[in-house]
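Inputs:
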Amino acid sequence: MPSPMLQRLKGFSYSLILLFVLGSFQKKEMDSTLSIQFRAYVHGVPLELNKKYQNPFGETFEITRFRFYAGKLAPVYTNANFKSKIPSHYHLIDFSDSATTRIELPVTAGIIYNGIQFQMGIDSADQNRGAQSGALDPAKGMFWTWNSGYINIKMEGNSPFSTQPAHIFEYHIGGYRNNYNTVWQIKLYSTNDQSFMISKEKKILIEIGMDLDYLFDGPTPIHIREIPSCMKPGELARKISENFIGTFTGLTISPNP
Amino acid sequence: MKSLAAITFIGFFCVIWTNIPFPFPVPEGFPSPIYKFQNNPRTREGFELGRKLFYDGLLSKDGNFPCSSCHQQFAAFATYEHRLSHGFNDQFSFRNAPGLFNLAWKKELDWDGGINHIEVQPLAPLLDPHEMAEDLNHVISKMKKDKTYPVLFNRVFGSPGISSQRILKALAQFTASLVSADSRYDKMKRGEVHFNQYELKGYEIFQQKCSRCHQEPLFTDFSYRNTGLEVDSTLKDFGRMRITGRKEDSIKFQVPSLRNVFLTYPYAHDGRFVTISEVLEHYNSGVVQGPTLDSGLRKGISISSDDRFYLIYFLETLTDSSFIKNPLYADPAMGVRNEAPAHLH
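Outputs:
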């Protein structure tokens, strides 16, 4: 007859084993990676900073800085009954640093996916967590200090059409309160309804195309001459964020070399 | 026997090398604080690092404007005798510097409540070109070159490295710890002293005429209200509307605590009132009508000269002299100052 102490210990070790088994299942879930590359285009030409372009309204402009937050990225299962495990972290996509435009996402091999989902911007729960680090470090210059909150999209540049000093234009788009929420949930599917399976050996690259023409020529037309700046949460920021999500035009899926 | 000795030895070592928890006492009668040092466990070392940062000019562009330049202990951490505070390059701040105490009970900070968490509050003055005028990465690089900071951050956070997150968490350990709850009023509440008849009469008048907004025990209800102040034509400060963008929040400001009110003059978001009498007279006869005016102030608050006499007796009981003399909150390099230094700018 084992002593009650020993029995208790035995129970404890069973639960340890159970935990270990569960833990290994958990681990097995993410056994491959999916490469995601954000690509921005203006008039069908890949975006380069400090290069002259023309928007759909004939206004010439240059972009000097272009960053935005994408978070909670996950592949979408073809079978709608399955839900992806959504990671909680964010990425700051910064077109002045090409390394940040590519994300290596841990995924489960052997499952068929047909899309990508992510959140554009920082949601209210994550706006209220105090001092944060990583992509959300306020030292990244994406945080409003006097009206706490992250700038979800930052686009700066210059255009002879801007009426601002030195002809600059600046769109700092953010806001999560009330009716001025600029955070969007985005689901993108491949342009030709292609689905894809990731295996451990055969890696896949997904390119998310962004057509910046739609930033100007969206549901709310943005003429640089009329709207050279947006620097605070509000109706305008909300509208520009709506244009912004229209720039995501689709996915291109290819084997990852 | 040997192993026991070894365990004891290791245990002893752990006590030395881990930070000692530093419990946060909630004063009797106070509600549960909003900031409970979640994800930022309060330790003596963390508090001390925050205190050092609070008093260090290194956090400002030209070295002259530590947090403590506008938040002075002898003024309950407001700026003594200044309508607006001074910042980098002879500039004025946008608003009157509020006293810093009982911040752990604030859900939203600043006169307009624009700051949503105590940990991110220091970013506003730090980066404001009129105040400390600094840049976060520059502050971090200055600290990394410093002799003591790398050691202190390592000790507090258990690994090397200085980041904005660590700076802000350490500062919050200090600022959230600034508790003022030992005034004559508190002592009366605890039964340690008795109010004299003037104070008692003042307390009664206070409860009738002021406590609707300045609710005990924190002496604010943290709401935003238009108290009938005309908008200053140079500052053009519309208060809460700047944050929410809503018309109905125009000229609304967060109700300030009246604790230490004798020490925190001048008053109001722009420091327009120099004395408490002026503030009381404003409520008595100076309230400006407007669409967002607080519903309780349509007719002002009638405060007779007798009322004023007694109220001032009561308000004086809210001064916490042990708070302003507490060596724990003082500049670690200087100790407690009892009054404004003569050279104060």
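Remarks. DSSP finds four helices and 15 strands in chain A. The interface with chain B takes residues 127-133, 137-139, 143, 145-149, 177-178, 180, 232-235 of chain A (CB under 8 Å).
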